[in-house]
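Our preliminary data section would be incomplete without showing what the modeling component actually yields. Below, a chain of 442 amino acids is followed by its predicted structure, encoded as tokens that our downstream tools consume directly.
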Amino acid sequence: MNEYKKMKRRTFINKSAKMTAAGVLLSRLPASSQKAIPMEGEIKVGLVGCGGRGTGAAAQAMQADPDVRLVATADVFHDRSKACYNSLIERFGDSEQLSIRPETMFVGFDAYKEVIDMADVVILTTPPGFRPLHFEYAVNNNKQVFMEKPVATDVVGIKKILKAGKVAASKKLNVIVGLQRHYQRNYLEVKKRLDRNRIGRIISGQVYWNSGGVWVKPRKAEQTELEYQMRNWYYFNWLCGDHIVEQHIHNIDVANWFIGDLPVSAQGMGGREVRKGPEHGHIFDHHFVEFTYPDGQVVASQCRHQRGCMNRVEEVFQGTRGNVHVHSGNYGVITSDKGKSLYNHDGENDIDPYQQEHNELFTAIKKGEYRYNDVELGANSTMTAILGRMATYSGQVITWEEAMKSELDLVPDLHSFNDPAPVLPDAKGNYPVPVPGKTRFT
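Predicted structure:
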């Protein structure tokens, strides 16, 4: 245990764990960090990434404040930009809030620059492999940011995010990351009671994202290899990070948050049992990881994309004096070690946490307040999920310190669909799949 603590102290982002333990929300800054320069008039918003999540986030931004104006969009695919616009026009009609025009719907690998240059606030919702590049550009150009999770797919990207996050903090730029449970009432109420020591010290936990999986985009004859991978981005690590990073991050994030610390090591197993065709790229369809924390807590983490199996998306924790059970459906229960109910969340008057993120961001922006900096929160949760992926791919025990030394850069510098893809299929169309016991954790 002393060795675990020594490793923990040597990690260069351990400071944020203490910040997490210190308050309900890592992202909410003390009043002394505020500035009182209100933003008057229109708030120009730019959307980078026009998929389903980007379209939803743009709508939530417009609902957050009547002065929000969506002025520009960017995507590498013209049809995605058009579908996004059609969805928003159906919802908002000719409202002046929807201010994008054909000439401000930018398409291409560098389109993000055009959009960010035009906006006061940017929404970053492309596949996560591109997040570090886009966030860095936004911060360097003094933009306030909402960006989806995860914030990177490799350690190189994590370090870039952290570096840009320091710049954002120095400029007092609000940054919210789409780990919406931190803005969800049942989670906040449960965490408040954990901070009051209602169940004692958390000693173990189980977190789950077991479901049937997501979409598959079939290959089309006219596509280059790079375009195919970007259309089918969920199944390629350089774009997605595997579903333990892209999706299960939510549950892993809750473990870090409730325990108030970061794991010092991970070990686990995973593979491809059901979802294993060429159309499924090279990611696993199941992962099981044990995360060990500095004070000895062990959290068992499960995620699975297999149809016809048990579905479960929630978090459960055991403490020295009681237990917690919580999930995203406004459910939160705390019981004593004798089974007595200590708290049962009623769910009345709860606000959609996806909407609440934007409500709080735009309220702060309009008041001219610097109130939110989710950068380390997002980086730490993403890095924890990457640590889990390293453990399942390699079959080894991986420490946080070892993982942070990784120099593997998964995301290339891209300019067109004719650029080479970073991973290529064999003659049968199959992509190289990690093999535990052979694959290096990087």
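The chain has a mean pLDDT of 93. The chain has two domains: 13-181+354-374, 186-350+382-404. Preliminary results of this kind motivate Aim 1 of the renewal.
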